[in-house]
Amino acid sequence: MNIWLNFLIDSLAFGATFMYGSTGEILTEKAGHLNLGIPGIMCMGGAGGCLMLNLIGTSSLPPFLIVILGILSSVLAAMLMGLIYSFLTVTLRANQNVTGLALTTFGVGLMKVIMSKLSPTVYLVTPKAYYRWPFAGRQDSLQCLGVLFFLGVAIAAVSSIVLYRTKVGLHLRAVGENPATADAVGINVTRYKYAATCIGSGIAGLGGFYYIIDYMASQEAYLSLEAFGWLSIALVIFALWRPARTIIGSTIFGFLFSCSSFITNLSFIQVTMAMKPLLKMLPYVFTIIVLIISSVRNKRENQPPQSLGLPYFRENR
Amino acid sequence: MAGTHAAGVREPLVHLSRRTGMPFWKSWLIRLAALAAGLLICGAVAFILIEKLRDDPGKLGDFYCAFIKGSFGTSRKVWKMLKNLAILLSISLALTPAFRMRFWNIGAEGQTLVGVLGAIAVDFYLGGKIPEGLLIALMFLAALLCGGVWGLIPAVFKAKWNTNETLFTLMMNYVATFLVSYFLVIWVPSGSSSLAKLKYGKLPTLVNDYFLIVMIALLLTIGLYIYLNYSKHGYEISVVGESVNTAKYVGINVRRVILRTMILSGVLCGLTGFLIASGLDRTITTESVGGQGFTAIMVSWLANFNPLMMILTSGLIQILNQGAAQISQDFNVSGALPSVIVGIILFFIIGSEFFINYRLHFRHHKTREAIR
Asked: What's the CA dihedral at B247, B252, B256, B259 to 10 degrees?
């Protein structure tokens, strides 16, 4: 197959990691919570899923059940992390940056402790083929797209529709823009914040699971996961808080990240070793540029949610 | 009150109100209680994670003793703890002026890292070619300059277009990381990408390797405390932090305060970078700061942005870190255990602030008052 097509498919597959992460983060941010715990949540999502697969990976359960149980347990672990975050920031009104960073510290650490105890031959080898379901076993590069990739695209698309085309989405955005007004209209601010954070965390957790079990599918994958959590937060800005745009954004980020290894295969482009780090820097530079442009143009629909980062206490005036 | 009850409106179970002016001792009692509760949960989590503990629960005593053993077991460990404390403390101090202004600078990791990069670059190109004293002075200036510039860039956009500084400074961390790996590729062409320890540019040794660093951090603490609490600049920072509109009304040039404070913040990060570069490592990796830029945010916040308190909070974090490292060594578990323990303790301390800032009123209390 054409090398460019391989390149595109690899970028898509790689990008799905941050697509999950940033779709989850967008839901949380739309409720007014800047969740810097996303890297930790993604790590725990990965650990939760692998923990389940470690139990059932070689059992005689039907493959689809193994796939579903892995996904569910990954979502559950990530949601528990989201619950810790929302309890501290919504109910106890703690500072969101500090709570998020503590959550990342905790999640990354706990994931490493858990993963070091699991056996890769059990959680990785057999289940990997199940997760690559429609294309498993193919010889071309299509084989790296699997169940979790398509689930990610679907979730991003559905989230966009829910956020911008339904009443629930309207209410959620109202909570993120101005919780006091939303409260006055009778929207249950606390419930929306909890729900958005927990569901968002569950989605982000799948990103970590996907990265470990499907995209990288290696036993060292979990060590490099944290960095992609931070990249997911960057992608939120790059996509200007639109879940559907993360599909394109994540492909571009995936492209930039993997082109440093791909570009050496192209005979007509001369790349020095020194260019690789600069290429990997580009996603962050682009994000900064998007952030600056959107603040200079100051168009209302491209701004961060107005109450992002601020705790809501009804009696504060 | 009685009227609403008669009308049958159910009051919520818990009602919150803000409280101010809780006595000093009481707020610290709450924090200590949170710390104790956190340590208990750590024990429980360790019990689940560590096999040796499950086999022999009697070792739980050893588990808690390790926190003391890890930091105070030998004089070498004490100095190591003090050194770690000093580095974390200086990064936290660097962040504090910005935080007091409600400028959420979460880019300390990057600002410190470019400080290290600046100092190491000077050392790499000029080491051995000019006198040692001049070299160290140039490394110092380069670190300060790099840190300052890295802090200034987001501040310019914040001051001019109100660009979200949290997200901007976060991104700058990664730009800094890849900048470092870029220079490593250039400096170490062999492909191993690890720079051997440089021979020149070592900070002079007083008493031992760490003494000077600890002293600098201490002086910085006192200096910053005075700057923030007893100078005109410090006052302006507080006013801008409380309300930008008030600041404008009383004639403070808000833009200038933002730029000035962020340069200060970046320069102090750069200074810490210099301490890491010249005083400790004399080499650089992308992990030279090792996430302390992020930990420092929590240290500064936990201390309520009070420089003197930061000695305590950064000390707490480092004691927990070293204790947990001792545990993972003694009980033979993954080296990631310190982050789990620090994370749990942080959750509890973060949560405890709620009980200091808010008062809870339960429903039955109220009814009783109403009856009376």
From this structure: -30
Q: What is the pLDDT of residues A36-80, one digit of tens each?
A: 999 999 999 999 999 999 998 888 888 889 999 999 999 999 999
Per the domain annotation, does A308 fall within a domain?
A: no
Partner-chain contact A113 B340, CB within 8 Å: yes
Burial class (CB in 10 A: 0-12, 13-18, 19+), B55: exposed
Interface of B with A in 182-211 (CB under 8 A): 182, 185-186, 191
B344 touches chain A (CB under 8 A): yes
**Torsion angle (degrees, nearest 10) of CA A237, A153, A192, A76:** -110
Nearest to B354 among A93, A233, A281 (CB): A93
In a domain, A314, yes or no: no
Q: Is residue A315 part of a domain?
A: no
Q: Whole-angstrom Cα distance, residue A208 to residue A19?
A: 11
Residue-range definition of the domain harbouring residue A298: 17-302
Question: What CATH number has the domain bearing residue B132?
Answer: 1.10.3470.10
Would residue B216 count as lying in a domain? yes
ipTM: 0.91
Mutate to test the interface with B, among A281, A286, A317 (most CBs of B within 10 A): A281
The verdict on a CB contact (< 8 Å) between B350 and A107 is: no
Distance CA A315, CA A317 (A): 6
Per the structure, the complete domain to which residue B81 belongs is given by: 74-317
A281 Cα to chain B: minimum distance (Å): 6
List pLDDT tens digits, range B256-300: 999 999 999 999 999 999 999 998 989 999 889 988 999 999 999
Number of domains in chain B: 1
What global pTM score does this model have?
0.90
CB contact under 8 A, B172 and A288: yes
Q: What contacts A223, CB < 8 A, 6 or more positions away?
A: A112
Q: What is the pLDDT of residues A205-224, one digit of tens each?
A: 999 999 999 888 888 888 88
- A173 domain-assigned: yes
Cα B344 from Cα A103, distance rounded (Å)? 9
Contacts of B186 in chain A (CB under 8 A): 274
CB of A292 within 8 Å of a chain B CB? The answer is yes
Q: Looking at the partner chain, which of B164, B182, B337 has a beta carbon nearest the beta carbon of A109?
A: B337
